[in-house]
Amino acid sequence: MPWKYFNQVCYTRVVMTLETSIGKVKLRRPGMVASGIMDETGPSMVRMIASGAGAVVTKSIGLEPKAGHPNPCFTEIKSGFVNAMGLPNPGIELFKEEMEIAIKAGPIIGSIYGANAEEFAKLAGKMEDYGAVAVELNLSCPHAKGYGMELGTDPVIVKTIVSAVKNAVSIPVWSKLTPNTQSIANIGVAVQDAGGDAVVAINTLKAMVISPEMRRPVLSNKFGGLSGPAVRAVGVRAVYDLYAVLDIPIIGVGGIYDAHDALQYIMAGASGFQIGSAIAKNGPNVFETINKNLERFMIDYDYRSINDMVGVANE
Ligand SMILES: Cc1cc2nc3c(=O)[nH]c(=O)nc-3n(C[C@H](O)[C@H](O)[C@H](O)COP(=O)(O)O)c2cc1C
């Protein structure tokens, strides 16, 4: 082993760190499980933390149990997935038992969806009681009528929801934004003006797959949300735009499959990142590989912390 390499490894053992802070939320590793994949039960969330995730964002939970859309609600395409799950979840009361198991393993962020500010505030209070370290407001799901993106594209509604939740809880409030809008930066500013603690970008892009044999859309809901490698460049651009106008932290999500993908988001301005489709495609080990390769990159390019790399592509 050349001396330089040996020296760097020793040096980085002492100084280099994958730790990051999203405002008051401190993470040992910057990668989190994105809402909707391997985060519906306590044991699956425990498994994801054990696999190297710095935190898990839960499946989005509402006030009442919801069955979601009928099958088919998920399809794979060449460059990712299109899903229209329709927010299936057991409802906030039953989700308590999953949270009791999950919070013992590591930091859990409670993702919630509601039809109005009052519902969001109620759900956020429950997640705080259950031990979530932060709540993530789903203002961005593209395929659930009356929820998500239908609220999250209007800066006035966004401001009202974020303010109500801020008044209801003392844990940090993150807002997950949709790319299906003319200006994601304007929505980010509305979140910040309302006292939001961080933004998460992006949720899925509204999309459709048609079966030529069947002569109709594949999904029962007809349209759904596109995720995976196809959306990565859209997500990176969204984070870059948000970084230019916001002072609050940004979390990047969309098409992250390896350390290079994660680094694009970090250098665009993200203090942390989330992974969804890559877990569905390649399994939970994605975190361990990304953590190892992030460290390798930081050694090779002489970065000592994630924070040293945040937003450097904007300089
Ligand atoms: C099957 C599936 C279910 C999802 N469910 C949710 C959800 O409940 N709430 C939410 O905010 N985002 C949900 N998402 C969006 C992801 O959290 C993420 O924002 C998006 O998939 C882009 O990241 P990716 O390319 O790493 O998957 C879901 C995505 C998929 C593929």
Largest sheet: 8 strands, parallel, barrel
Shape: globular
Mean pLDDT reading:
94
The chain-level structural class is alpha/beta
Helix content: 25-40%
- Strands of the widest sheet, in order across it, are 3-4-7-8-9-10-15-16
* N- and C-termini, Cα separation: 35 Å
Bound molecules: flavin mononucleotide
Map the helices and strands:
Elements: H1 3-15, E1 20-22, E2 25-27, E3 31-33, H2 42-50, E4 55-57, E5 74-77, E6 80-83, H3 92-102, E7 108-112, H4 117-129, E8 134-138, H5 149-152, H6 155-168, E9 173-177, H7 184-193, E10 198-201, E11 205-208, E12 210-211, E13 216-217, E14 223-227, H8 232-245, E15 250-253, H9 259-268, E16 272-275, H10 277-282, H11 286-301
Helix pairs in contact: 2-3, 4-6, 6-7, 7-8, 8-9, 9-11
The protein binds flavin mononucleotide.
Flavin mononucleotide binds next to strand 6 and helix 10.
